[in-house]
Specification:
The protein has helices at about 1-15, 35-40, 55-65; strands at about 20-30, 75, 85-95, 95-105, 110-115, 120-125, 130-135, 135-145. A 5-stranded mixed sheet has the order 2-1-3-6-7, with helices on one face. Strands 4-5-8 form a 3-stranded antiparallel sheet, with no helix packed on it. The protein has 3 helices and 8 strands, in the order H-E-H-H-E-E-E-E-E-E-E. It is α/β, with parallel strands linked by helices.
Length: about 140
C-alpha cells in the first residue's frame, strides 16, 4: 500500500514539476514533534529510527531510493541543496490518526487503525510547498482474545 502511495505521488510529481534533483527527505509531522507526541499516540513513535521503527524505515527507503519517474528523473534519499536552483524534496508527513476498537462478543474485537499521511512536495530554492498529496492508510484486523 505504501508503494502505491509513493508511486502515485512520484507520477504526479513527474508530470507537474521540473527539477534538477529530486530527494526523499524522510518522515516528519505536520505539527511540531512535541504536539505530535500528545496527539498522535502511535505514529509519534516514528519520530526517530530505533529497534521498533527500523523495519518501517528500511522498507520505506528501499522502496523510494532509485525510483525512476516517468520523465526519467531518479529519486534519491538525502537532503537537497540550496546551492542548486532547481531541487525538489519529498517528505512523508504524519497528520492525524484514529484507532477504533469494536467489541463483537465477550472475546472478539475488530480493530481499525487509520493514518492520514500527506506527501509534501517542496521546492528548496523557493522555500515553498509545491503540492501536498493526501494519503490515507488504513488497516483492519480481528482479534479473538
Amino acid at each position: 500500500m505504501l508503494r502505491v502511495a509513493l508511486v502515485t505521488t512520484c507520477f504526479l510529481l513527474s508530470s507537474s514539476v521540473k527539477a534538477s534533483n529530486i530527494y526523499f527527505a524522510g518522515v516528519g509531522f505536520v505539527s511540531t514533534t512535541v504536539s505530535a507526541q500528545n496527539t498522535l499516540t502511535y505514529s509519534s513513535k516514528f519520530d526517530d529510527r530505533n529497534a521498533l521503527t527500523e523495519p518501517f524505515f528500511s522498507r520505506l527507503y528501499s522502496e523510494i531510493e532509485g525510483f525512476t519517474l516517468q520523465n526519467g528523473d531518479v529519486v534519491s534519499t538525502g537532503l537537497a541543496s540550496l546551492k542548486t536552483n532547481n531541487d525538489v524534496t519529498l517528505a512523508l508527513t504524519f497528520e492525524s490518526e484514529e484507532l477504533v476498537i469494536n467489541q463483537i462478543s465477550d472475546n472478539e474485537y475488530t480493530l481499525k487503525y487509520t493514518l492520514d499521511a500527506p506527501i509534501l512536495i517542496y521546492d528548496v530554492s523557493k522555500q515553498t510547498v509545491l503540492s501536498s498529496q493526501p494519503i490515507r492508510l488504513a488497516i483492519t484486523d480481528f482479534s479473538d482474545h
